[in-house]
């Protein structure tokens, strides 16, 4: 075996080992309680309430995703909205509106996002639909119970 072939073999071996280590790290970062059934979440502010479940699952392409599903309900006059705030590798993203409802009503809340061990995300319910200013306290949707 010449030097060039040995170098390629070592490089391939290293790449396979790195891929396996990354897969093990991602699997370890998703506790069994998060990977199977959903974990409930709920946020209320004023006459708006959002609730549902959250879990980790693989997309069709094999990417680990945070999946949040639920309902936003509002009663009375005015509007309520659901907002999320993600942070990837210590880089915060701006708040993003996920759903809104005005008057008496209920709408679905469906949130999907790529999940890595360094991802954090929070959800809140706000009065109005334009800005996340009059809102409940942000609730984590990436904190997993132990067990």
Sum this structure up briefly:
The chain is built from 2 helices and 9 strands; from the N terminus they run ααβββββββββ. By secondary structure, it is an alpha+beta fold.
Descriptive notes:
The protein has 147 residues and is of the alpha+beta class. The protein has 2 helices and 9 strands, in the order H-H-E-E-E-E-E-E-E-E-E. The N and C termini lie far apart (50 Å).
Q: What class would the helix/strand composition place it in?
A: alpha+beta
Spans of 5+ residues with little confidence (pLDDT < 50)? 13-35
**Percent in strands:** over 45%
Shape: elongated
Terminal CA distance reads 50 Å
Number of helices, counting only DSSP H or I runs of 4 residues or more: 2
Task: Report the order of strands and helices.
Answer: HHEEEEEEEEE
Please give the radius of gyration in angstroms. 20 Å
How many DSSP-defined strands?
A: 9
Feature tags:
single chain, 147 residues, alpha+beta, five-stranded antiparallel β-sheet, four-stranded antiparallel β-sheet, 2 helices, 21% helix
